[in-house]
Task: structure prediction
Amino acid sequence: MRTSDDILREAAKKLKDAGVPSFRLDARLLLSAAMGGQDMFSATPVSEDAERRFDAFLQRRLSGEPVSRILGAREFWSMEFGLSPETLDPRPDSETVVELALEWAKTRPGPLTIWDAGTGTGCLLLALLSELPQATGIGSDMSQEALETAQGNAARLGFANRTAFVRGNWLAPARDASIDLFISNPPYIPAQDIAGLSREVRLFDPAAALVGGDDGLDAYRAIARDLPRILAPHGAAFFEFGKGQEDAVAAIMEKAGLAVVSRRADLAGITRAMAVAFPVDKVSEPG
Result:
């Protein structure tokens, strides 16, 4: 029976030679999963069955498949989200739009109704619900498989009684003036840029969650058509977008009659999220 030290040393070298930046961490995560989550110490013995599972994991990682896809889960907002082939792998950058939405939501009295369009794993919606105990939420997606994944995550994380998931294109299923907080991380990569993405993204994230048309902005235009109809008078909408797209997204929303309230940069200093709402002169202030 070989030891964890020997196996990790060999695997880390293979991953490093294949150009994987986090070669040590990836090797350790995959071996731990192959061993059933067992704690590894120096020279921990590894069973033959566990080593076979690890070898299969390692070959998948060497082919470019991300660790999260291999393990079927990704941590986001300190919660673990199950993945499926039809869901985007949640990224830390997306926590920026959650932070921006929470800052607004926590200043609003009473319960809120949240709509997460293109919900995927449900990570944006469930992150908000974890911080807003009076809120309820709806996630929409065109993929039935994604909706089932989001529903499973909601149930496992304890939000089943505060969520509903509906199949539909962006905001089409929503009732007029029914949403207090809208949030979305729509596909925003221009079609011609897909070939330049890393193989982890290009080969393993669903194209429908990545490609935003020729200029990357098709989803924002589609959302802007319905957003003024479904947003409550004092509601707000929050978007994630790609590097350098903030002015174009702002122009789309302003053309739809909404005003940009704030923008937020991610940890790398890239403007990543935006809040929009009805202009003050179009909404009567609450008495």
The mean pLDDT is 94. The beta strands are 73-76, 79-82, 113-117, 136-141, 163-167, 179-184, 231-240, 259-265, 271-277. The first strand starts at residue 73 and ends at 76. Residues 38 and 229 are 52 Å apart (CA to CA).
